[in-house]
Amino acid sequence: MSQSPTSAGAETPDAYLEAFNQLARKIRDGQSFSGRERNCFFLNTGGPRFADASAAAALDYPDDARGSAMIDWDHDGDLDILLTNRNAPRVRFLRNDCADGNWLAIRLTGDPARSTPRDAIGARVEVWLPGNLRLARTLHAGDGFLSQESKTLHFGLGKVEVIEKVSVRWHGGDVETFNGVEVNSTWHLTQGGSGKKLPLPAPVTLKPATPALPDSPEAMRLRLSQPLKLPPLTYTGFDGRAVPIESLTTKGPLLINLWATWCAPCAAELKDFTTLNGLTVLALNVDQLDPKSGTTAEQASAFLQKSGHKGLSGWAERELVATLDRLLREAVYRHLRMPVPASFLIDRGGWLTVIYKGAEKAARIQADVPLLGIDETMARRAAVPFAGPWAGRTVFVSHVGAVAAAWRESGYPDEAKTVLQKFLAENPPKPGDAKLALQLGEVQFRLGDLELDEGRAEPALASFTAALQSNAGLIAARIGQLRALSALGRAKDLEESVRALAGTAAGPDALAILAEHASRAGRWADAIAALREAAAKNPRFVPGLNALAWLLATVPDDALRNGQEALKTAEFFLQAPGARENPEFLLTLAAAQAEEGRHADAALSASTALTFARTRADREFLRRALPVAESIKAGKRWRLAK
Length: 642
Prior knowledge:
By secondary structure, the protein is α+β, with helices and mostly antiparallel strands. The chain is built from 19 helices and 21 strands.
């Protein structure tokens, strides 16, 4: 959360995006968020330290636990625990059968006329015990992540048998004292009223039960709300002849089944499929996708004959499987992998309509056949397993930029590009439509950013230029233009564009790009001058300050190198929030310290930079930084190559 952007317009930290990408990959792959780390339970020892009692208390479950709440659920005077998990079991109840001491439970009702909410949130209760001992608790509205404990305040009393009094400081400031409160009971205290002892509920009897495991996420039926048109695909028959898939759908529906000779469920499924009517079944073997399989056409045919399959058959081409897998990813975000067996029900004309992950019953597929070719409204209803209204375009309008960003951040740049290009194709500019123009500018900028990431500077420059034609005030697109010009090596155009922006808010960013371009060309003096100009325009422009300090500490020209200024600059921008956890910044500090002869400090800074990078799995930084860090740790100064 500390890396989250502070506002919609704030620059998103790289560390946040990388963490988000890793999290998205874990969601898709069904992995543990916590690395399968067990839950921890710490015992208060009455001093400054806690004891790890996780295993001793039998609470060290390997769950991806999230929320936890304490409640005396079975009314026996001790606190039980409810846990919610991201994985199964979604809720875990942990009954406390260990406590045997006395207790007191307090429920509160406030008086709104006395500035206290009726649920008494904020009230502080003190229980006075013999020997001038006090126990205190405050009633909170929330107690933890995604959780709220019971609003009945519980006090463990141990062997104490007498309560001298209970005082309540209400949210409005009033303090009231309640006498006559007894141990081992629940009391209802009302502001401005009296305390009332509540009858104990009947004991709760819990019956042990074996949890039912959910179906594997590998097995599922997915009825698409909008069928997907298959691109031209072919399969190879066991006789070596290539056959277009679409040619099989000219007269009716087709079921493509992917199977393997090593797959036991495949044989039973293919035998069951012999009962299907009204469609063609194409059984495609995937063994040859593994170069080491060695499966022959005769062996595959013998497998099919034994299963009873008499329909079409052949080898599954790699392109066909990859295309079906991509279509499955488009339909299901959390798609682990293509299972075997898997089946695809394709309507007349090559429209993919139903996907079956894992083994499927012929009866269920047969029930889907009459639903092929139905209108859009009926198709949507058939796509959900329950009745209810569908969120249509007028109810839920997706934000194309957000959708593209989600694809990109999740590691699917091609899908992100497709979303953006489709929007541009479907939404030509309209004179006078200012709102559409702004949206087109954003979409074209995002497309240019993707192109630039892929090293396609020419189309990126065209997209950034188009973005500015739609929205001349889009500063990010102007910066994108500079990046593209730099990548294309158009130094004159780059410098002219930078100077045009020098007096604007984008000036420091533009100058930093100019400095980077000059550095790549070995024009160190020009690069340093541009960065100093950027720092003069914005003394808190941290990326520019980092680049300046790095050059001043590592530039190969002795006349330009200035370790003292580099160290002073680095120590300044490292005061920014979170800067001392940034590997790039720490490596710059290490280089500056090494240049100034502070080799012990430099070695520590370099080691810390590598530690943070390894924690974040920043492989790209580690690849660049390892030679620098090792040289600095060996007591040497680092120099850029001439």
